[in-house]
Design brief:
The structure holds two protein chains of two kinds. By secondary structure, chain A is mostly helical. Chain A is 69% helix and 0% strand. Chain A is built from 19 helices and no strands. In chain A, helix 10 runs antiparallel to helix 11 and helix 11 packs antiparallel against helix 12. Chain A is elongated and about 95 Å long. By secondary structure, chain B is an alpha+beta fold. Helices cover 59% and strands 14% of the residues of chain B. Chain B has five helices and three strands. In chain B, strands 1-3-2 form a three-stranded antiparallel sheet. In chain B, a hairpin with a 5-residue loop joins strand 2 and strand 3. The longest helix of chain B is centred in the C-terminal third of the chain and has 26 residues. The chains are: A mainly alpha, B alpha+beta. Chains A and B meet through helix 2 and helix 4 of A and helix 4 and strand 3 of B.
């Protein structure tokens, strides 16, 4: 038999449409009534009388509930949503300016925009319980696609573009090992290793690097915030010692330093250095407000002029200003993403938002470094802007997850107490 | 003396921010503190307090956190943010201006507040 106090609170929260908001409110009102009842008992009233009077002094439950409902309505982040849709449009514009495949980009834009808007309304907190399962299912999907699709130039290109989802899912993995100490860190490492293996299987060096760099940043931040508990020093050792070992091994086994020095000064312009030389030549012909290159001609001299090196082609044909404007829009989005991520109250929404921001930043960084002829990074899309269908949808899913998390993040957390009278005047949806 | 509710409605938010200026409080404490400071003139109902607090939190002028009260119970404390301090200053000067004008009309003289 629920008490008067519980009955009152149930009537109040019934008016609150957002279910996630209810547990915290139940607790706060319950605590308040407890304090009120205690004060009345201390003043000489008997418990039953005190409870009745305390409840009465709260006010009409329906009116109170309606007021609370008004304060707990989730709002989508319009700035990020609209800026993202704008960038998707800019991607189509970019294709048309460069004489690329506009139709193809438009075909990708429709599901991308739809995903962005729809995921906004999904409850991201499902990933709190199912994060690990989704991560593993995603890896299984990648392996399935590897086994059933045909590789292009030795790589499974479609699967490659899906890999931007790995880092956000890794963020959820991190969240799921809260308070598990060193073994929690180790488990994260195991999940990371599984993801890294799939990346290398495809092979996607870009995916591998982005997962590794992003994963390192997330793990280090989590340890710094004492997310796992236990000794921080040992956690850092567990993370960084294997990294250092793998890094050293890679440096010794692969001629990375040699390749890097070749990028600084191109020694083989007609052979291995062709791409880098073509990029630098194109950029040299560009001034601030115009470029000497003709997009149609670039198509033949600069491989990937409308796809992987669209920014180079844009600058070469239309000048540095065009490139700066495009990058400024993207940079604005990224800055907004980080600002929102660090303001998140809920921890899952924090990890999810930050990992989404990181994976988009890393992709952008790789793209820009390559396109400016600074370092030829493994091929990476420019989120929302560069040519592609799968990568457009994949990055839109990442942004959609972000939007969902930041919309509902402030109500993340508690569960209703088990004894709460759910059946009492609760209309089941 | 019984005060007309509509007179209080507009300034309740400002009074709550003022209470939080000196230290963090939880809901029940705020009602008691308000009663004490106003000499029992203002008796705020909890059903009015909590929706207002949650709206103020949504606006970013206050933030909340769970911690142990001095009596050892877990309570949701509210804290005045930097934006809240600015808002309080603005509202206080607005109130001074307003009440000065009212007093002028009523009393025909400039009452310093």
């Amino acid at each position: 038999m629920p008490s008067k106090k519980e009955e009152y609170i149930a009537n109040v929260v019934e008016q609150i449409r957002l279910k996630q908001a209810r547990p915290a409110i139940v607790k706060e009102l319950s605590d308040h009534l407890d304090d009120q009842i205690e004060a009345l008992i201390a003043a000489g009233k008997d418990p039953a009388e005190a409870e009745t009077e305390a409840v009465r002094s709260m006010g009409d439950p329906v009116l109170v509930g309606e007021e609370l409902n008004r304060a707990h309505r989730p709002r989508p982040n319009w700035a990020i949503l609209l800026l993202s849709l704008c960038l998707l449009g800019c991607g189509v514009l970019l294709q048309s300016l460069l004489g690329g495949d506009v139709a193809h980009q438009l075909i990708g834009l429709v599901p991308a925009a739809a995903v962005l808007v729809l995921l906004n309304f999904v409850d991201y907190s499902l990933l709190a319980r199912w994060g690990r399962a989704v991560f593993l299912a995603f890896l299984a999907l990648c392996v399935l696609l590897i086994c059933t699709t045909t590789p292009l130039h030795g790589a499974f290109v479609q699967v490659r573009q899906l890999l931007s989802l790995l880092l956000p899912l890794f963020g959820c993995i991190l969240y799921s090992f809260k308070g598990k100490g060193l073994s929690g860190v180790a488990c994260c490492g195991v999940f990371y290793a599984a993801g890294a293996c799939v990346c290398l299987l495809i092979p996607s060096v870009a995916g591998f690097l982005q997962l590794s760099i992003g994963g390192l940043i997330l793990l280090s931040l989590a340890v710094a915030q004492n997310w796992f508990g236990g000794s921080k020093g040992r956690a850092y050792a567990l993370i960084y010692l294997p990294c250092a070992a793998v890094f050293a091994y890679t440096l010794i086994t692969y001629p990375i330093l040699g390749r890097l020095s070749q990028m600084v000064r191109v020694t083989d312009p007609l052979g291995n250095g062709y791409q880098l030389n073509a990029i630098r030549t194109t950029l040299e012909g560009a001034s601030f407000c115009g470029g000497s290159a003709d997009p149609a001609a670039l198509f033949h001299t600069l491989p990937g002029a409308t796809t992987d090196f669209a920014l180079t082609a844009l600058i070469g044909s239309f000048g540095w200003l065009a490139g700066i404007v495009l990058l400024a829009l993207l940079a604005l989005l990224l800055v907004l993403l980080y600002g929102v991520a660090f303001r998140q109250k809920g921890r899952l929404s924090f990890f999810l938002c930050l990992s989404c921001a990181l994976v988009l930043t890393l992709q952008s960084l790789f793209f820009v470094l390559s396109n400016l002829g600074l370092l030829l990074m493994p091929a990476s899309p420019l989120p929302l802007l560069s040519f592609g269908n799968v990568s457009l949808v994949s990055n839109s899913i990442v942004l959609g997850l972000f939007l969902s998390a930041c919309r509902l993040g402030q109500w993340e957390g508690e569960e209703l107490p088990r004894s709460f009278p759910l059946s009492l005047s609760y209309r089941q949806p | 003396m019984k005060i007309d509710k509509s007179l209080l409605a507009g300034s309740t938010a400002m009074l709550l921010l003022k209470l939080l200026e000196s230290r963090d409080l939880y809901g029940y404490e705020m009602i008691e503190e308000l009663e004490r400071r106003s000499d029992h003139t203002f008796s705020l109902k909890a059903g009015t307090l909590y929706p207002l607090l949650h709206t103020l939190e949504k606006q970013g002028v206050v933030s909340s956190y769970e911690t142990q009260s001095p009596q050892g119970r877990a309570r949701k404390y509210y804290h005045l943010t930097e934006a809240g301090r600015q808002a309080l200053l603005a509202q206080q000067s607005q109130w001074a201006h307003f009440s000065r004008a009212v007093n002028q009309v009523l009393g025909g003289m400039n009452c310093a507040f």
